[in-house]
Each structure stands twice: as structure tokens, then as C-alpha cells.
Amino acid sequence: MGKPKLQIIVLFQNLGDQEAYFARSPAPPLAGALLAGLTPPVVEVELLHEMIRPIDYDTDADFVALSFMDFCAPHAYDVAARFRKLGKTVVAGGKYASTFPEQVLPHVDSVVVGEAERVWPEVVEDMVAGRLKKRYDAPFAPPLDGIPPPRYDLVESDFDVPVVTEATRGCPYTCSFCQLTIERAPYRMRPIGDVIHDLTATSRLPFHKRKIAMLYDNNLGGDIGYAKELLAEIAKLKLWALGTQFSFDCLHDDEFVDLLARANCTMAFIGLESLSEPSLASVHKKHNKVEEYKELFVKLKHHGIMTMTGLILALDEDTPEYYRDLPAQLDEIEPSVILLSISIPIPGTPFHQTVLEEGRIIDENLAHYEGDHLVITPKHVTPEQVAETFQRVNRSFYSRRRMFRRWRRLIAGYRCARNPWAWTFHSGILSYVFFKLSIFQKDHAEQRVYPLSASKALTNTTGRKSAPPTGG
Ligand code: SF4
Which of 247, 270, 289 to mutate to test the pocket of ligand 1 (most atoms within 8 A of CB)? Predict the structure, then answer.
């Protein structure tokens, strides 16, 4: 008899009975491949990203592990119910299940609370032996050494960038909307050798997929000395492209930016959140300085690095005047790609506590907490102004004319190449990443943002993750 089978399913959108929406994301979330890498060989393991292919309820898997974020919880409960009806054992984990295990537990057979590394092998062994406990509590903020590489070979081939990992966890800052503020853990770093091992544990992938990688840190620059040391080591791998995430203030450090370029970084995700200083102050994001955005983005462009920036509407100090001027301000600062969302009061965060105490939550359906719906009463703008701005800014920013203009300036701004060949090669990769991410966001706007009327923005029940900006 063969081994029992475990299927790990990563949920990323609230689909209900709709067909899976191919999200065109170049890289998968880390959770699934990481969990597969941690799974002991007592089971055969499969990995499914629902954003790429639909869940197969006819699977011959004996066990199902569900990984999901808060806004996917209602969908996860439906998925779990269907599998349990078919006699499968269902385990849940992830940030939401860790924060609210008592809410998740009635829907599944077992919940993993906390970071899975130290307990997951035990969960799998117990599952196979038929002695699964209802709850497994991982130690709080354990050291990050010895984590095995993610199973990139199990990631769907639709993903252009299967090589994803993280070097650190946590962030020194305390932005009030950020998931990391739910339970403050110290900033932790993995041994650099372990990270390099992940980035090179790629022998089962086609050659071109081994050459591009994504670091999913919340803030790679939380310890800038460590980040520099790591980037110097990554540079030796001669990747074609690297994406990473860090806080805006890291850009003041010229050596850090030089090392990003030496590591062939092409994309930096930075949580700008707002182009309004009062709105930034309202969420305690004081390390972002609006007057520095343009200059520091130009510095990145000189090094051949595009920016993907998170921006949030419906922050407490947003005004109609700010919304009116936002497209022009974006033209001026010129981030390469924006990921625009409506503020999400993630349960457990200080921002959620504030709007709850002020009686400003108007929608408690967790499925709407994905960044495409207004679920709170804004302070100085109307819901209609938020919805109108959400659409107008997307339309303007992702018009073909502006996209091509940004691309032209991005390539023209790239100066710091070692030689003409390096410039040409990096410019080609940079163009590919730029259009891939731009089209991904444009596509999202067309499918999910433009069809919303102001009232539907409050009530629409479909949703797709637009990656709530919790990093950098
Ligand atoms: S939003 Fe970014 S900078 Fe702020 S606490 Fe979270 S990870 Fe840190």
C-alpha cells in the first residue's frame, strides 16, 4: 500500500462556486511551498494554489491542509465543510487561524496556531497515526535557523517565479493597520547560508526559472547590516532578477541600494500607503516622507530597479482635495506600478480596534476585507468619493499612454550598468517585469474595480486578493 496523501491548498481569493480566477501573479505565496518543504516523508504531498487551478474535490488525498488569510476565512470554511463531508481530515493554519483559532476550529479538524516550522512535522505524524489533536501551538517567535527549502518543484508551472523565500520575519515599525502589529514579535533573521540554500535548491526547475527569485520579507531592511551582507551573497548567485520588499527609509542608504543593484534586484515593493503626510501620520507610518518619494525613486531607477508601491484609500486624514490631486501627484513621483486598495481594518490590529470603538465599521463580512470594498465609514470623505477615486486613479495610472511613458522613463533612467551588455540584458528583464506587473494590476482593475458602482463597492460579494499592503 502506498503512503497516505496530503494535499496542501493555498486559498487566495473568495471564489465561492465561481471558476478559479487566474490571477496572473508571477509568483506564488510562500506558505504552500514552505509547508510542503516541512512535511515529513510519511505522506505523499501535493500542492494546489486556487488562484491558478480549481480545487479538485475528487482528490484521492486523505488529508487536506488549508492556508488562508483573514478575508478568505468564509471561503475556507466552505471548502473545509465540503472536504469533511467527503471524509477528509482538514487542518487549518496561517495568520487568521493563529489569531482567532476558536473561530476557525469549529470548521476544521485541527488548527495550527503560530509559525508552523516547529510543530508541522508532529501534526503530520499524528494525522497519519490517527491521533490528531484539535490544536497545535507553536512556540512564540522561535529562532529561524534550520528551516528546509520550500518545495519549488510542487509549484504550478503557470507561475513564472516559483523561487520564493524569506530571509527575515517581523519589522521594527508599528503601522497601525499592519498584520504584524497583532502580536508583536522581535525582528528575526535567518542564517544567510540557509537563505542562499533556498535560492539554490532549484535543480528540479527549468533553467530560466532558477534565475529569478522573490524575497517575501515584510521588511528586508529591518536590520540594514544583515540585509547588506545577504545581498552581497545573493550577488554571487548571478540571478537574472530579484524582487524584494523593504521600508522606504532604507533608500537613504546608498550602499544598500548599490547592493540591491549588484544582486540584480529589478523590483522593490515599498508600502508608500499614502501621498498625504497627515494620512501617513494617522497610521503611524512616520518613516515615509512624501517630499522624498520622487528623489529616492529616481535613485532606484538609476540602478535599474522599478518600484511596486502599495497605496491605501480611505485613511482617516484623506480629503477630497487629496483625492482630486492624486493622479497628478502620481505622475510627478512616478512609481512604476501601484497596488491601490481601500483600507482594511484587519481584525486584531490597532486600526481595527480604533474603528470598532468609534462605531465606524459598516460591513462585518470578512470576505469583503480584501481591499476592494469599503467596510468602514471614512472620516473626511464620502464612500462615493472613495469608490470614484479608486476607479479614477486606476484608470488614469493604467492607461496605455501612461504605462508606456513610465516604461520609457524607467529604461531611460537606468544608468548604473557595469557595461553595455549588462545594461541591455537587465533592461530586457526589467521591461518584462514592468509589463508583467502592470498588466496584472490593470487586469485586476478591469475585472474587479471598474465594474463596481459606488454602492456595489459596499456590497459586492465577489472578491480577489489584491495583496493588502502589509509589507515595507
Ligand atoms: S506596514 Fe511595513 S513598515 Fe509598517 S509595520 Fe508593517 S511591515 Fe513594517
Answer: 247
CATH number, residue 115: 3.40.50.280
Q: How many A from CA of 273 to the centre of ligand 1?
A: 10
Q: Would the pTM count as exceeding 0.85?
A: yes
Cβ–ligand 1 contact at 283 (below 6 Å): no
- My answer on whether 84 and 173 are in the same domain is no
Which of 168, 176, 178 should be mutated for ligand 1, with most atoms under 8 A from CB? 178
List pLDDT tens digits, range 416-431: 777 899 999 999 999 9
For residue 178, the ligand 1 atom closest to its alpha carbon is 6
Ligand 1 center to 199 CA (angstroms): 25
Tell me if 25 sits within 8 A of 51, measured CB to CB: yes
Which of 444, 446, 410 shows the shortest CA–CA distance to 429? 410
pLDDT classification of 459: cutoffs 50, 70, 90: very low
Question: Looking at the domain assignment, is residue 148 inside a domain?
Answer: no
Q: How far is CA 79 from the centre of its chain?
A: 22
Give the domain extent around 256. 160-464
Structural domain tally of the chain?
Answer: 2
Do 39 and 173 fall within a single domain? no
**Domain boundary pick from 137, 169, 189:** 137
Question: Cα separation of 338 and 231, whole Å?
Answer: 25
